[in-house]
Amino acid sequence: MPLANIDEDAIVRAPDGDALSVAFRLHAIGLGYNTKLMTKEKAPKTYQDLLDPKWKGKMALSGGNVAYNWLGAVLRTHGEEFVKKVAQQDFVTHTFNARALFDLIIAGEYPFSPSILSSHVMQNKQKGASVDWLPLEPVGHIIGSVALPKHSTHPHAAMLLVDLKFSREIAELQKASGYMTTHKGVPVERTYKKFYGAQSMAEGVKWQNMYMELFVKK
Question: Structural domain boundaries of the chain?
Fold first, then answer.
């Protein structure tokens, strides 16, 4: 596996240093907004900006893993007390996914949401939609990873597929489709501090429970 070409932070390593899994595609979670309803200058630029009283009751959050990973990034960066303050901004929470919420932003139902995937924004922007995306750092991600099972039936064929997944050619295709890539050789338009998500299933469950308790079960 050509790991020398991959960002080190995208690699989950075992205690002995071997790679357990590697991220090759990233769905960046950030602030997607309708440019007809809000300008870039007036849009929140940080998680702290979400506490502005003028946004209370006007922000929406998607459901599922995108919302949980968004909360995880805020929690890991600013702590639980800060998350509780953010929750007091009376977000409109939805059970459907980030794609469906972004459709509502395109339609003008909401001016923005901090739980929107950059790939959705880029794809629709290329089609002429009046939308844009801003990173709130550190930016949480939904990760596409590759791992090779220990007892693969055809391990050498599997390794060829793994090599393909981490090739520059595939990284370029992902970038053209609006996704982020972990390949060092593919330049990116936006640079920001990344947050690669939960480090254990227990941590992921904690985020989910906290999201339900603070943002949904009000």
Answer: 3-216
Q: Which residues in 91-121 are b (16+ Cβ under 10 Å) and which e? A: bebbeebbeebbebbbeeebbbbbbbbbbbb
pLDDT tens string 91-136: 999 988 899 999 999 999 999 999 999 889 988 998 999 999 999 9
Q: How far apart are CA 141 and CA 155, in angstroms?
A: 29
What end-to-end distance do the CA atoms of the chain give, in Å? Answer: 47
- Angle, helices 64-78 vs 201-211, to 10°: value is 100
H runs (alpha helix) in the chain:
64-78, 80-87, 98-106, 118-126, 155-165, 168-176, 201-211
Q: Are strands 19-34 and 60-61 parallel, antiparallel or unpaired?
A: unpaired
Closest Cα partner for 93 from 132, 130, 66, 123? 66
Among the CATH numbers 3.40.190.10, 3.20.20.70, 3.40.640.10, 3.10.129.10, which is that of 3-216?
A: 3.40.190.10
Total-model pTM: 0.81
Residue pair 26/179 in contact by the 8 Å Cβ criterion: yes
Calpha distance 8→123 (Å, rounded): 28
